[in-house]
Amino acid sequence: MKLYDLELSGNCYKVRLFAALANIELEIVPVDFMAGEHKSSVMLALNPFGQLPVLEHGEVVLRDSQAMLVYLARLYDLESWLPSDPQQMAEVQQWLSTAANEIQHGPNVARLVDKFGFEFDKPTALDISAGILTLLNDHLAEHDWLALGHPTIADCAVMPYVAIAPEGGISLDDYPHILAWIDRIKQLPGFIGMPGQV
Q1: pTM for this prediction
Q2: Looking at the domain covering 2-75, what would its CATH class be?
Q3: What stretch of H or E contains 68?
Q4: How far apart are CA 109 and CA 186, in angstroms?
Q5: DSSP letters of 77-106?
Q6: Largest Cα–Cα distance of the chain, in whole Å?
Q7: CATH 1.20.1050.10 region(s) of the chain?
Q8: 30 three-state secondary structure
Q9: Under CATH, what is the fold of the domain 86-186?
Q10: pLDDT tens track for 149-174
Q11: Strands 27-30, 2-5: parallel, antiparallel or unpaired by DSSP?
């Protein structure tokens, strides 16, 4: 199973993190993003969106990090990470949607502007970030984990861009429950980090 990967991508890290925590073996294939390799004909054949990560498992090719987390959890029948019970699965899924929406358009966009020089609307990204980080901090004030009272793929999906939010000029000092949650994730057996993480 191959993961076409960029070390500095929070989306790629989500998959690496979950695989490490769940003892899933991945072949990491680094892609030279700065040289435009993600837009090469080979990579576009795998993912016409020209984005990373890409997961290749035999004839299965996936292009979205949240989808990859779901695929791996169900492929290996990891009930604790993604239950098959409809209500519990939905509780996890709603956080995957948060990762793909508010987290992606908030902390991630702010980091893309500051760290990589993308010309995105940073004031809007900061507004989105303030809203979702407040909501997340309030939720974590009453829960150790995002869903179901234990680690799930929800935590793997949401944590990466939150933990590197300072690279987008977003301090986490006002969000103590988020910081405590990140520390809990770091204590999980098999945890791996990524550059820039608090």
Answers
A1: 0.95
A2: alpha beta
A3: helix 65-75
A4: 24
A5: T-TTTS-SSHHHHHHHHHHHHHIIIIIIII
A6: 48
A7: 86-186
A8: strand
A9: Glutathione S-transferase Yfyf (Class Pi); Chain A, domain 2 (1.20.1050)
A10: 999 999 999 999 999 999 999 999 99
A11: parallel
